[in-house]
Amino acid sequence: MAHYHATFRFYADLNHFLPYARRQTDFNHTFDGRVSIKDMIESFGIPHTEIDLIVVNGESVDFDYIVQDGDRVSVYPDFTTVDISPLIRLRPEPLDVPRFVLDIHLGRLAGYLRMLGFDALFPENYDDEYLAEISSTENRIMLSRDRGLLIRKIVVYGYYVRSTNPREQVVEVARRYNLIPKMQPFRHCAHCNGVIEPVAKEDILHLIQPDTREYYDDFRQCTGCGRVYWPGTHFERMQAFIDEIVRQCAP
Q1: Which of 1, 37, 66, 244 is the 20 to 30 Å CA partner of 75?
Q2: DSSP per residue over 36-80, as a string?
Q3: Tell me: the pLDDT tens digits for 188-219?
Q4: 136 lies in which domain range?
């Protein structure tokens, strides 16, 4: 069988996925037979959800392009400040209201996103096929530490979370999706993702302790799990956390 060769170069943070010897440089790749550019790039461990533009021999191509012998391929991540509209942009249009689904590795991140006011599912069923189906059918952004999950073809919106530290992760995702202007803190329950609504004090007296009844009058309740929230010291700690996230995301 004939062996073919193509030269690749990956730009910006796509290099995160490559071994050191292939970062920030051209490298040669040998292949056999008919292979799409999408499959070839993902064979290097880079999910298609991370890619915005592919240029082959000076021309932009889509994911269905079949790699040819001698091709020179340049691959770029999301363009946020440069207009590349004349070219074939591979990332879908951003969602007006970002909603998320997270894999088993990102439970703390799910809670933090909920605290900021975002709909963030963290399903008990961690089967990859199930998570990918939710992402696809509900137009949710898949956040994952599993590249294998993100390369599934039905996943349109997805991001590989680089950091392993939950506090760093929420800053990373907030920057990636420009979440700060869109946040509505304490809109979603940190425990179940249900919507939190104002509730009359007399309706939840049986759910709170005597001291809480005496000193607080402003209450909210999760429409999902029924958990009750009020502006106590825990609220002050969460607000301080949110203020710090906003500070770190500032230009």
Answers
A1: 1
A2: BHHHHHHHTT--GGG--EEEETTEEE-TTPBP-TT-EEEEE---S
A3: 998 999 999 999 999 999 999 988 888 899 99
A4: 100-188+244-249
Strands (E), the chain: 4-10, 27-31, 53-56, 59-61, 72-76, 100-102, 120-121, 141-144, 158-160, 196-199, 219-222, 228-229
Mean pLDDT of 121-139: 91
Q: Does 32 reside within a domain?
A: yes
pLDDT of residue 83: 56
Q: How far apart are CA 89 and CA 32, in angstroms?
A: 28
Same domain assignment for residues 48 and 121: no
Rg of the chain over all Cα atoms, to the nearest angstrom: 22
Backbone phi, psi, residue 66, to 5°: -90, 120
Q: Say what the pLDDT of residue 124 is.
A: 78
Residues 6+ apart with CB under 8 A from 131: 101, 103, 123, 125, 142, 144, 149
Average pLDDT over residues 31-56: 95
In the predicted structure, residue 241 carries a pLDDT above the cut 70: yes
What the block records as the tokens of 90 is 């591979």
The answer to whether residue 93 sits within a structural domain is no
